[in-house]
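I have been asked to look over a protein record a colleague put together. Alongside the sequence sits a line of tokens, each denoting a local backbone shape. Please read both lines and tell me whether the tokens look consistent with the sequence. Take the sequence as given and treat only the tokens as open to question. I have pasted the whole thing underneath without changing anything:
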Amino acid sequence: MTELIKNYFKPSNISLIRELVASDFKLRYQGSVLGYLWSLLRPLFMFGVLYIVFTHVIRVGDKVPYYPSYLLLGLVLWTFFIESTVGGMNAITGHGDMIRKVSIPKYLIVISTMLSAFVNFSLNMVVVLIFMIFGHVPFTLTILLAPLVIIELMIFNLVISFLLSALYVKFRDLSHIWDVVLQALFYAAPIIYSLAIVPKSIIKIDAIDPMTQIFQDMRYLMITKKTLTSEGVFHSLVGLIIPLVIIAAIGLFSVWYFKKSSPKFAEDL
């Protein structure tokens, strides 16, 4: 195990990841007037529209404490998930020339796309903290546990990206399918609404969704202790264990499939 870790995190691999992340970040905003500010403006624009709709029209946010920060945090986490998985899906096909010409560990390319999205996510989290300050959200010591949930989200994003990137090499229709899946997930997960309003008949099904568990735990730790978490739905650690087991199961399958498919990437591209 020690040798495996050393092989994965040897200095040459870390340097390559750093170069890939820097290159991806530069290319993403090349020729753009506002540059990386678009990574901040995108969730803010979406926040503005949804905040107006769900506080003045449908009024879902009336019973949610500190709803502006609650909503923005959800959108920032969701944006990170989208950027990681969509970027991960295109990671191998987008670096086809490099893969055909240079022998490099393919998994590093997928990792670099997730880390590139993490850079944007970090900038967006600064905006969330500013919103919390101006929204008079009380800061508690539980916020120090938020990085643990962020690491869980990063792992979840990564294992999904491994699977999507390997599948997309052979099945290019996957991009259209994933767009539909993302739309469904956006409304299935409690991003714009509270988990507490989900009907009792399906709330436990919703609660074991890793996205639901991650979103609600982040809000509980950062925004308000009145947030209903997956653990709170089950009144036990089962609400936390099941999403973690799901992530682990997806991860094992994704890594196996990626490792099995990667030797043929150059031929299939």
